[in-house]
Design a protein that fits this description.
Layout (H helix, E strand, L loop, with lengths): L10 E6 L17 E2 L2 E2 H10 L4 E8 L1 H5 L12 E5 L4 H10 L7 E6 L7 H14 L1 E7 L4 E4 L8 E5 L5 E10 H12 L7 H7 L5 E4 L10 H16 L20 E3 L3 E3 L2 E3 L3 E3 L2
Parallel strand pairs: 1-4, 1-6, 4-5, 7-11
Antiparallel strand pairs: 2-3, 6-10, 7-10, 8-9, 12-15, 13-14
């Protein structure tokens, strides 16, 4: 991929893995939990390490993990660099962004807790960022969305939001270097956002939406982890993972010959006829 000037566009990925994942309640940072024989973190890094357009990766990890790094990190070689994450996601990303050398043209940011990201989604985010400066993968809402009133007690509906305008944000989120620098500068001045796109919006930039992937789920709760393990077990062996849902769907048929002297009953309904089913 080349720029308008003919120079190759340098793309670097930041893997946000600096959190503890306390909502999962595992006692271990969730990004290091096993998932189909590999950790979530390893799967997320591998998706970008194998992508032909990504030339480098910076991973933001909790300081205690950096002190005793998992052995699989060495397998990614010199393309990967590790930095200590901060208190907030935006702090971790800012530190990782500052560690990129030489400066990139495009930065792709991804949550380590989304271990099933695919190459096509990464491509869509990169392409849109090159064209527009900022882009995020997202899915249109399939549900009706209600906005609740502020206040304590039982929540009450304030209004119904038009569903066709609601998108559910995923990662990767991709930015040109200039847009991400502006977004992080807004954060350094006191702004806060749950993702870099929110900071880019506050910095005055338009963020494009590109098609995400329903399989690109974020693992946050024990139920999310169990479902992810069940899906992987079925994908790898064709067998249901213990604790998964034992449901099967199929199509079949039944046939019986017609005989004299019996009523013809189909679906519980008696049909006037001279013969009936011998079943």
């Amino acid at each position: 991929m080349v720029s308008d000037t003919g120079a190759a566009i340098r793309v670097v990925a930041i893997i946000a893995a600096g959190g503890q994942g306390r909502r999962l309640g595992a006692g271990t940072p969730k990004q290091l939990l096993p998932l189909g024989g590999r950790t979530m973190l390893e799967r997320s890094i591998a998706a970008f390490a194998s992508h032909p357009r990504v030339s480098g990766i910076v991973v933001a990890l909790p300081p205690e993990v950096i002190a005793h790094p998992p052995s699989f990190l060495a397998g990614f070689g010199t393309r990967l660099r590790v930095v200590a994450g901060g208190v907030r996601r935006q702090d971790s990303v800012a530190t990782a962004f500052g560690a990129i050398d030489p400066p990139p043209d495009v930065v792709v940011i991804h949550d380590a807790a989304r271990p099933f990201v695919d190459s096509a989604t990464i491509d869509r985010a990169i392409d849109a960022a090159v064209e527009s400066g900022a882009a995020i993968a997202a899915l249109p809402s399939g549900d009706t969305v209600k906005l609740a009133h502020d206040g304590e007690g039982d929540p009450r509906v304030a209004t119904t939001i038009p569903r066709d305008r609601v998108w559910l944000a995923q990662t990767p989120q991709a930015f040109t270097r200039e847009v991400l620098a502006a977004a992080l500068a807004v954060g350094a001045q006191g702004a806060s956002g749950t993702d870099e796109a929110a900071l880019a919006e506050q910095a005055g930039h338009i963020v494009r939406l590109v098609a995400g992937d329903p399989r690109n789920v974020k693992i946050t709760t024990p139920a999310d982890l169990e479902l992810a393990r069940a899906a992987l077990a079925y994908e790898q062996t064709g067998e249901r993972h213990r604790g998964g849902t034992d449901m099967r769907i199929g199509v079949g048929y039944d046939s019986h010959r017609l005989v004299q002297g019996r009523p013809l009953v189909l679906g519980g309904v008696t049909i006037p006829h001279g013969t009936g089913l011998a079943g």
